[in-house]
């Protein structure tokens, strides 16, 4: 089965929720919708599910136009950020509820509920009610209910957002395996770049109602087609600087210059925007041929395995992440260095010109 | 983004359309029909155009005089009722317990007056206020107050207003209570940490959060009090004199007492329009004032 | 501004006579110094919010007391304790402008007009709220509203402490970075005692000078982010801090040798008198286990999954029945699923019944 969206737009009053989205989702794939709050992720899911009809454009399932067909007639399941379960029913009955609606024979219900419960490690809790379970187990129950239905399209709208950090980590590690076994089309909305990376599959980068880039998750991460996608897919935030290449040299906006080596070598003369992630910036640890920027430390955050150094360079803020524990006192002058082979170059319109080789 | 329409829904709504057509639309058209004609019985009708309306809206005519007199009475009554019931309802809601057995108890007590039929309420107060055998009337007179709602217009008004307050304040209180219950505990904690006084908590948190239910409460109470008929009819019959003759009572006198169907029809149309316009204006103003917050909120 | 002492504090929501093992907060004593940045870190239900609410006076503890600068505050209300608190979800006074919201705690305390204006302006400037000062607070986005909540928490210069209850939950990742570093700058600029409750280790470690890790109602370790990462005192700390968490492996330890799944590991320190009968485990963070091509002498492992986080890669491997997470060095590429593990002896810790044992040199 495939789900295809063609030029789907959604406008309500003066607000554009979705604008000209075309994409196609294949059976057995995991598709991550990555974008900040209000970027259109939920609207897109609602359009896929058939909860809302797009203002213009069409939704096709297996090539058949289903635009405007009620959600009840489609094979769709949805999991929300809040743990939505029937509080008075046992976990077994919660998971069984979609099958009861379909009036399946008891035997089949029993078998399918137990299979799904095993997959989500809920077997010990089948006799309890949701309120006796932890948040993680409650959300597992909601996911189990979505899976047991055997729906062709399963939509998960930030399903881990309300969970504790560690529970999130656990469930996130298990989800790809669960998705693989089920074989449906999964669409998974998240605001967190690291979640997209860990889930893998394909990523659809969303911003202001547009799908900016669609592709395999590592490809989108390592070759963002636009500056905006690179910004959306960076955590800590992407560092940027404008520059101009002239006569074999690079003049960075704000005063520093360097030879046009590395990725700059093949670049035609002209103005560009440079983007680099926090781990691509080194502090006081440059190698020969790396570009040097004098900067001041604004703040150091120690996160255990790594340290985040917030730098000020000519009025702009950069973040560098260094492995291990490093403490720089605020106000200290340091040299930030950048490997000219390990950065993203965008033209003034924000289109990718060069990216690190290999990735 | 449009919700996907479900065509089956029309089938379910169809019976309602049929009932509304028979119970409201057709009678309404009949009334409109009457309001532009004159009749002397025997089913003979004469075209009168907007004649009745002109007479009705001209205070110098007998009909117009009666209409405006009772219209002012209605407005005064609704104004008084709202001015008492809304603050009283809010105060009661604020005083109600938030948890424990007291919740159920106070909800039941508050709901009791709402369960009593209008004419029974009227009868209760009609007897309660009588100065010969009524507990309140007799008691007041014994205490030295010269209270007699049959003879004194002010007493009659007071009786009707107190009766309405007794009957309907609980509705406002229940609505406000529902509004108060929906305020998250964090707001109260934040306010106490911010050092807010009881009054500041009320104006900065409780009142703004109760806004939506208050709009509904005011609308309901306005419509209801503006259309009041049964209770004053039972208690005072519109008297003494015409002092409690509200539009609805006037209308019945005109239509059933004098059989002036044309005039009565014109009056009911104007009466209905006033209610619709007031409610519409009020509702629009209140929802527009609240709409500006919509833009920022909500996941797309 | 105050030093805060917690003296034998304990709390049960079922009353003080309930079974002590069911207490939401088990007996805890602690001192928080004036001007410090503290984090209370732990999973849901570990008692961290209970502790916070006891300090602010929202919850009356079943036992023990809280001292502000040595003064018992148990009889005081939240308001009298003079603390500020920021909640998980933005609390905004809808009818007021942003400026009025920020001024509210000062106005309620009868602070003079000029001082209010100065203070509100200072806080608004630090939080980048100056352009919105005259706008209705109800019209702003969720994260701007949360900034206002933060601002209201910080606007009073004389508070005993500012308490944050998971304040960044509703904030998008990119803005989290901004607000988090802003909080840290504010802490430096304002010299306030700040206590930050969260389940997110990154938020806790990056914000606080001292992190208090809680588990099932007790404090399991208090330390700097560095200590918690490099020397977790309890296996729970090892698991909860770090992503992925520490590898905790059942082992037999004798002197300077540990045996894991039949493989001998040498330790940097010597462990002589381990308590007999105790459950002995070794803990090592994934950052200090690296994946290498399989070779004799290395612990042989089968790769199950590799997580690519962009800036680092972690392999989840299996050694017999044990699951181990290990760092994948940059540029390493392996043919099949078979690999070897290299452990850094200096970062291997030994635990007896979940508690870290200090080795001898």
UniProtKB/TrEMBL annotation, chain A:
PROSITE patterns: ABC_TRANSPORTER_2 (PS50893)
SMART domains according to UniProt: AAA
GO cellular component: ATP-binding cassette (ABC) transporter complex, substrate-binding subunit-containing
Residues covered by the ABC transporter domain: 3-233
Gene Ontology terms for molecular function: ABC-type ferric iron transporter activity; ATP binding; ATP hydrolysis activity
Pfam families: ABC_tran, TOBE_2
Keywords: ATP-binding, Cell membrane, Membrane, Nucleotide-binding, Transport
Similarity field: Belongs to the ABC transporter superfamily.
The protein's name in its UniProt record: ABC transporter ATP-binding protein
Organism for this UniProt entry: Reyranella soli
UniProtKB/TrEMBL annotation, chain B:
Domain ABC transmembrane type-1: 71-282
Membrane topology, as annotated: Multi-pass membrane protein
Places the protein is found: Cell membrane
GO terms (BP aspect): transmembrane transport
Span of the signal peptide: none
Membrane-spanning segments: 12-36, 75-96, 103-128, 156-180, 213-230, 264-285
GO CC, any one term: plasma membrane
One matching Pfam family: BPD_transp_1
Keywords attached to this entry: Membrane, Transmembrane, Transmembrane helix, Transport
PANTHER family in the record: GLUCOSE IMPORT SYSTEM PERMEASE PROTEIN GLCT, TREHALOSE TRANSPORT SYSTEM PERMEASE PROTEIN SUGA
Family from the record: Belongs to the binding-protein-dependent transport system permease family.
Protein name: ABC transporter permease
TrEMBL record, chain C:
Similarity comment text for this entry: Belongs to the ABC transporter superfamily.
SMART domains: AAA (SM00382)
Cellular compartment(s): Cell inner membrane
Membrane topology reported for the UniProt record: Peripheral membrane protein
Record flagged with keyword ATP-binding: yes
Alphabetically ordered keywords of this record: ATP-binding, Cell membrane, Membrane, Nucleotide-binding, Transport
Stretches assigned to the ABC transporter domain: 4-241
Species this protein is from: Reyranella soli
GO molecular function terms noted in the UniProt entry: ABC-type ferric iron transporter activity; ATP binding; ATP hydrolysis activity
Stretches that traverse the bilayer: none
Protein name in the entry: ABC transporter ATP-binding protein
Superkingdom as given in the UniProt entry: Bacteria
GO CC annotation terms, alphabetical: ATP-binding cassette (ABC) transporter complex, substrate-binding subunit-containing
């Amino acid at each position: 089965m495939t789900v295809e969206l063609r030029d789907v737009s959604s406008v309500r009053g003066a607000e554009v929720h979705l604008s000209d989205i075309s994409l196609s989702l294949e059976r057995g794939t995991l598709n991550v919708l990555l974008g900040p709050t209000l970027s259109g992720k939920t609207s897109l899911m609602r359009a896929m599910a058939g909860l809302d009809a797009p203002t213009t454009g069409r939704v096709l399932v297996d090539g058949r136009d289903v635009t405007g067909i009620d959600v009840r007639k489609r094979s769709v399941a949805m999991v929300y950020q809040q743990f939505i379960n029937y509080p008075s029913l046992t976990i077994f009955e919660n998971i069984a509820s979609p099958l009861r609606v379909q009036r399946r024979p008891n035997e089949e219900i029993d078998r399918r509920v137990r299979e799904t419960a095993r997959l989500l490690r809920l077997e010990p809790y089948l006799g309890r009610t949701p309120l006796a379970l932890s948040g993680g187990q409650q959300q597992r129950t909601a996911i189990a209910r979505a899976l047991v239905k055997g729906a062709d399209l399963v939509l998960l709208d930030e399903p881990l957002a309300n969970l504790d950090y560690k529970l999130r980590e656990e469930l996130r590690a298990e989800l790809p395996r669960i998705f693989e076994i089920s074989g449906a089309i999964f669409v998974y909305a998240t605001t967190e770049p690291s979640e997209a990376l860990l889930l893998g599959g394909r990523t659809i980068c969303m911003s202001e109602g547009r799908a900016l880039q669609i592709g395999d998750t590592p490809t989108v991460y390592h070759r963002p087609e636009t500056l905006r996608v690179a910004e959306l897919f960076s955590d800590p935030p992407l560092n940027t600087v404008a520059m101009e290449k002239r006569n074999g040299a690079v003049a960075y906006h704000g005063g520093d210059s360097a030879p046009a080596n590395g990725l700059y070598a093949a670049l035609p003369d002209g103005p560009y925007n440079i983007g680099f992630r926090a781990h691509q910036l080194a502090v006081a640890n440059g190698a020969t041929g790396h570009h040097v920027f004098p900067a001041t430390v604004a703040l150091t955050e120690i996160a255990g395995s790594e340290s985040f150094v917030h730098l000020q360079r000519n009025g702009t803020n950069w973040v560098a992440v260094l492995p291990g524990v490093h403490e720089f006192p605020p106000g200290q002058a340091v040299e930030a260095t950048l490997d000219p082979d390990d950065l993203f170059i965008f033209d003034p319109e924000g289109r990718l010109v060069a990216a690190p080789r290999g990735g | 983004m449009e919700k996907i329409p479900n065509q089956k829904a029309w089938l379910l709504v169809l019976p309602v359309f049929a009932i509304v057509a028979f119970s409201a639309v057709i009678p309404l058209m009949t009334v409109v029909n009457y309001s532009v004609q004159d009749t002397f019985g025997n089913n003979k009708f004469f075209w009168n155009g907007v004649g009745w309306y002109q007479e009705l809206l001209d205070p110098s005519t007998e009909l117009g005089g009666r209409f405006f007199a009772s219209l002012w009475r209605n407005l005064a009554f609704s104004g008084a009722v709202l001015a008492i019931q809304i603050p009283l309802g809010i105060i009661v809601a604020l005083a109600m317990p938030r948890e424990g057995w007291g919740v159920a108890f106070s909800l039941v007590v508050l709901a009791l007056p709402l369960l009593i039929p209008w004419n029974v309420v009227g009868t209760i107060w009609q007897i309660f206020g009588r100065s010969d055998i009524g507990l309140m009337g007799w008691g007041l007179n014994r205490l030295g107050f010269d209270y007699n709602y049959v003879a004194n217009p002010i007493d009659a008004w007071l009786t009707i207003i107190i009766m309405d307050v007794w009957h309907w304040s609980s509705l406002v209180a229940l609505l406000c209570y529902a509004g108060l219950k929906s305020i998250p505990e964090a707001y109260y904690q934040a306010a106490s940490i911010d050092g807010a006084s009881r009054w500041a908590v009320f104006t900065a948190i409780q009142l703004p959060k109760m806004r939506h239910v208050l709009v509904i409460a005011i609308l309901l109470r306005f419509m209801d009090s503006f259309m009041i008929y049964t209770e004053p009819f039972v208690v005072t019959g519109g008297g003494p004199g015409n002092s409690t003759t509200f539009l609805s009572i006037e209308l019945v006198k005109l239509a059933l007492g004098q059989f002036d169907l044309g005039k009565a029809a014109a009056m009911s149309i104007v009466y209905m329009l006033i209610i619709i316009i007031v409610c519409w204006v009020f509702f629009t103003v209140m929802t527009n004032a609240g709409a500006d917050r919509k833009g920022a909120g909500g996941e797309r | 501004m105050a030093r805060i002492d917690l003296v034998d504090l304990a709390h049960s929501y079922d009353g003080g006579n309930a079974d002590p093992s069911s207490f939401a907060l088990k007996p805890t004593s602690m001192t928080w110094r004036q001007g410090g940045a503290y984090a209370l870190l732990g999973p849901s239900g570990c008692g961290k919010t209970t502790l916070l609410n006891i300090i602010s006076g929202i919850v009356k503890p079943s036992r023990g007391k809280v001292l502000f600068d040595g003064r018992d505050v148990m009889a005081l209300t939240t308001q009298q304790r003079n603390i500020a608190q920021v909640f998980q979800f933005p609390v905004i006074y809808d009818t007021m402008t942003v400026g009025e919201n920020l001024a509210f705690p000062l106005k309620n305390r009868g602070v003079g007009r000029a001082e209010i204006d100065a203070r509100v302006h200072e806080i608004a400037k630090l939080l980048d709220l100056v352009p919105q000062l005259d706008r209705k607070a109800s019209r702003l986005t969720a994260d701007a509203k949360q900034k206002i909540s933060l601002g209201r928490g910080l606007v009073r210069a004389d508070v005993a402490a500012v308490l944050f209850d998971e304040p960044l939950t509703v904030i998008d990742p990119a803005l989290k970075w901004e607000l988090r570093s802003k909080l840290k700058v504010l802490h430096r600029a304002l010299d306030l005692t700040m206590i930050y409750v969260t389940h997110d280790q990154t938020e806790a470690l990056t914000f606080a000078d001292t992190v208090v890790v809680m588990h099932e109602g007790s404090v399991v370790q208090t330390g700097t982010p560095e200590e918690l990462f490099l020397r977790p005192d309890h296996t729970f700390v090892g698991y909860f801090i770090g992503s992925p968490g520490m590898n905790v492996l059942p082992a037999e330890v004798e002197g300077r040798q540990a045996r894991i799944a039949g493989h001998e590991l040498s330790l940097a320190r010597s462990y002589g008198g381990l308590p007999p009968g105790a459950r002995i485990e070794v803990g090592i963070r994934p950052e200090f286990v690296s994946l290498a091509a399989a070779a004799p002498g290395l612990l042989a492992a089968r790769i199950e999954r590799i997580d690519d986080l962009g800036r680092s890669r972690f392999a989840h491997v299996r050694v017999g029945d044990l699951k181990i997470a290990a760092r994948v060095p940059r540029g390493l590429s392996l043919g099949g699923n078979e690999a070897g593990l290299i452990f850094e002896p200096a970062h291997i810790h030994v635990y007896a019944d979940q508690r870290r044992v200090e080795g001898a040199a």
